[in-house]
Amino acid sequence: MNKKPETAKNPALKIKAAQEKIMFGKPVADEPQRAEIIMPGKNGAYNDVKKGGISTRQVKPAKPKPVAAPRQPVKPAAKPATKQAAKSVPVKKKKKSPAQESQELAEGVVLSFTYRLIDEARAKGGYLSVSDLKELNKDFEEKTAEMKVAIEKSFDDYIADHERKSWLNSRTRPFDRMIVKSFSHLLEDESRKIKRSKLVSRRMLPGFFIALNLMLGTDIRDSYQGKCRAIVKIIGQRNGNDFDWDDIYDNEDARAIVFDALVDIAGNFSDLNKRRDWFVDLVNSHLENPGDVEDEESQAWAFTPEGFDEFFQALMSELRVAVSMEAGRSLVTRRRDEKTTENLIKLIKKMGNPATP
After folding, report:
1. Hey, which of 69, 155, 318, 333 has its CA 20 to 30 A from 136?
2. Residue pLDDT, tens place only, 120-153
3. pTM value?
4. Could you tell me the residue ranges of all domains in the chain?
């Protein structure tokens, strides 16, 4: 016979059971429930049933997830060294000037001579006889050939350095250089080893530049100089290390400047015979020092009227060609005036016949 629970007989027990707080674990779905909890529902009816009971399955606490270590930044792999990087960059040494090389050469010769004397004196008890010195002199004579080569190289370097500086300085006065270009084929080279004319020499250049300043005037000459400098600068920037004076001589703007200057110069020689004498005297009173030239003819050289005629023909060659053509005469007239063209034609005729007054 089924026995009813006491709570069914005694409603107070039901209320008391409902008020008790019963602690039990989390139900597991796969385990059967051993009890039911009846809770009062709406309107005092005990029909709210909840599952309860204790699970026989022990729930193991979840293992904590391992905390990952912070990621270190990945360094890029080193690139393999190239052949160029492997080589050490050579330090470019500053080239010594010829003066420094000559100084070091002289000091080296003196020190070598001195140390040799000291060594010989020590070997012979601190004293050297006349015969010892003669023997040493033979040794030094044998080394003369080697010293000669070194001295010649130093001297050649000095000449090359001097020419380089002259080249750089010539850029500051390009107009003078361009005027000289018109008769430079008559001049000997800068070393004076090649003579092209017996009547014309580089020794005339100082007097020529003085005459040029007197014929053009300082302001006009400086103006031409400034225009030519501008052309040299433009061509130099464009060509860089490939700068060549032939680029200046062939430049149309530069040729126009020289053409105008030659017209101005020609205007000073309307009385050709009188001006010839003036020019010859001026040049001879300002001749360049011949230097160490051993040639007696070069040492005794002087400018002559015959030399002037040869020089002036070369100087005026471009104008002579211009006035021989209608286009050239028109060019002079457009740049100056008809009177200038007429005077230039007369001068060219006198040059062909110097006896013409």
Report:
1. 155
2. 777 777 777 777 777 777 776 666 666 666 665 5
3. 0.52
4. 11-21+31-54, 98-156, 172-352
